[in-house]
Amino acid sequence: MTGDNGDIVVRAEGLVKSFKGFRAVDGLDLTIERGMIYGFLGPNGCGKTTAMRMLTGLLTPTEGTVEVLGLSVPKDAETLKYRIGYMTQTFSLYGDLTVLENLNFMATIYGLSGKKRKQRIGEVMERYELTDLGKRFAGKMSGGQRQRLALATAVLHEPQLLFLDEPTSAVDPESRRHFWEQLFDLVDGGTSIVVTTHFMDEAERCHKIAILESGQKRADGAPKDLMNAMGANVVEIEGPNLRDIRRHLLGSDGIMAAAQLGARLRVLVRQEITDPAEFLKAKPETNGASLIEQVRPNLEDVFVTATGEGRQ
């Protein structure tokens, strides 16, 4: 992009995708800046994958406009494909090809040849710990190994913008942490990233997120800013009969939501209540609680206040 738009990698306005009358994405507006990890957070079926497929040019919007890296999508999708990387939700490489054969095949698709091809394949194999797995069939690899191969092929052609659709849903926690460190290395090297996830801890690692529900954007911004602006304070209660306390609190004035986490009940109290801990202590339902204290909000609290019952 040129001029004032040089820092914008994705701009979408009024994006709609309908399937037989069902709006999978419903009026989505997005502005994603260069050099960040931008996350779509939401449950299965909220429109995350559909939105991403429109941004990559794989799906044609029913309504609205999309511009990615200054190109109009889907009109310029063929040009765009050489400038973006896309890692699908399910492993989409060839199980009956080796690691090296998969990388060579993808290099051909992206037009890499000769010395450049050899150099890039060597670089990604080293970076993503695939050097010793070159002759391993992709179908015989573990979840973490497949994930590293999928990322290696997605960045082989050094894309400016990388799309990752629930990239860690099939790997263990250690592989997930390691994968996210690799994403920050890519951002450090100048790549912008759009990622979908339903993991709250992953979303909290994004520079900015959009919370989606039923195809609509419910909130958008930096996780910390969303926590500060969510319109609720968080109080945790310890003590006996937490299930009874929760049942009585739900639906009462000033209470937005309540959920049990282990031996504590986490209660979202509307922001206009000046001292939320004292407010709960004064309620007869909490009589006998051993601890009632205000705590810092997290992204799950933001999600609850922005969607479902929290929006009532």
UniProtKB/TrEMBL annotation:
The keyword rRNA-binding does not apply. One of its GO terms (molecular function) is ATP binding. Pfam families: ABC_tran (PF00005). It comes from the Bacteria. Keywords: ATP-binding, Nucleotide-binding. Residues 10-239 form the ABC transporter domain. The keyword Ion transport does not apply. PANTHER family: ABC TRANSPORTER G FAMILY MEMBER 20 ISOFORM X1, ATP-BINDING CASSETTE, SUB-FAMILY H, MEMBER 1. Belongs to the ABC transporter superfamily. This is ABC transporter ATP-binding protein.
